[in-house]
Amino acid sequence: MADDKSAKSAQQEGERVPTVIVDDLHIVYRVHGAGSGKGNATAALSRLVKRQGSPNVREVHAVRGVSFIAYRGEAIGLIGSNGSGKSTMLRAIAGLLPPEKGKVYTEGQPSLLGVNAALMNDLTGERNVILGGLAMGMSPEQIRERYQEIVDFSGINDKGDFISLPMRTYSSGMAARLRFSIAAAKSHDVLMIDEALATGDRQFQKRSEERIRELRKEAGTVFLVSHNNKSIRDTCDRVLWLEKGVLVMDGPTDEVIKAYEAESKK
Ligand SMILES: Nc1ncnc2c1ncn2[C@@H]1O[C@H](COP(=O)(O)OP(=O)(O)OP(=O)(O)O)[C@@H](O)[C@H]1O
Hints:
This is ABC transporter ATP-binding protein. Pfam families: ABC_tran. Keywords: ATP-binding, Nucleotide-binding, Transport. This protein is about 40% helix and about 25% strand. A hairpin with a 2-residue loop joins strand 8 (about 240-245) and strand 9. It has ten helices and nine strands. The protein is an alpha/beta fold. The structure holds adenosine-5'-triphosphate (ATP). The site of adenosine-5'-triphosphate (ATP) has 12 residues, from strand 1, strand 2 and helix 3.
């Protein structure tokens, strides 16, 4: 509580309050059952006899020594080609992947959109709004108060009563909209959105961009992974550009996107 007060007064005084510190972060995936070793029983027995380890574990070094500090009120875009490590980094910030080396420090529990809202496909949209709200730490009263707002924001019921149908009957866009609406109903210290805006239609994208701006005003930090440079331009003031797990550039949106576009045209 005292920390919260001092953080708020620091912000009023114009000081920048760090929310995420990533220090020389390395993430390595270990893939079992890959590799070029022979997969038959004789080869496995021979390895056992010779006491050799399995040759079938491959390592993928997805994030390589990334460091940066994110501050309150910032909306940070993550860009880079496919497989450059953007989602991996968000998962590591959310605490879902252990660092091989380096550290991640965060203020509060960062929410990775779609993961923290533990939604169930067999339950109706309505039950999922309640479940997702509870999973984010909202009280049943808070959920009741905001229920209609969440449903209206998602637009799920615009064309009929879909909120009372199981989520498995939703299109991927509808499910993504509901996930975003649930996650955005609460202010987060650190909210991370992975490609969520790309799934909704244009109208929903506009609404969610507006909501991201509001979330920023509520003093959170927002991370947005997207291949849509326009979405990034419209919502973010700072951009991190990753390539092959390395942070190539970190700076104001316009500068970084210009450099990225110039590189992509090559
Ligand atoms: N579960 C996993 N197991 C093993 N390797 C993985 C796993 N998830 C991702 N990788 C590898 O890590 C690297 C980074 O992947 P990541 O999904 O973070 O990239 P990305 O920048 O988010 O890509 P995209 O833009 O295509 O979504 C890739 O080489 C990928 O093959």
